[in-house]
Design a protein that fits this description.
It contains five helices and no strands. It is mainly alpha-helical.
Length: about 120
């Protein structure tokens, strides 16, 4: 009798834990970055541009401020590879900020005067 009651309590506790651990899937209108995949911006101007776009459901799409010190060239070069490994919700949020149908140099436009030209 005691064993059955203990088994029932364990099953109920497992079900409660499973329900609490499930994260609600993002809705189609949500363009927020996932909480565990916050964006990495190469320059402060990219962060400013992305912050201008609000999620229609939640408002602010990522935690701010993100402090910038220095991003080495190897990190800049590997960022596009890193982004490929992230979730579909991250890709959707990134697309909202920096659409892929723009030319490849669209990030250069966002950079503005934040980075010196090599020819200077």
């Amino acid at each position: 009798m005691l064993t059955r009651a203990l088994i029932k309590r364990l099953e109920k506790a497992e079900q409660t834990a499973i329900m609490k651990s499930k994260v609600a899937p993002p809705t189609p209108a949500c363009i927020c970055f996932p909480e565990n995949e916050q964006p990495f911006f190469l320059l402060p101007s990219q962060e400013e541009a992305a912050a201008q776009i609000a999620c229609p459901l939640h408002g602010q799409r990522f935690r701010q401020p993100i402090f910038h010190v220095y991003v080495p060239q190897w990190r800049k070069d590997s960022e596009s590879i890193r982004r490929q490994r992230l979730s579909s919700q991250y890709h959707k949020a990134w697309e909202a900020s920096f659409p892929s149908d723009l030319p490849d140099d669209h990030l250069e436009l966002v950079r503005g005067s934040g980075e010196k030209n090599e020819n200077d």
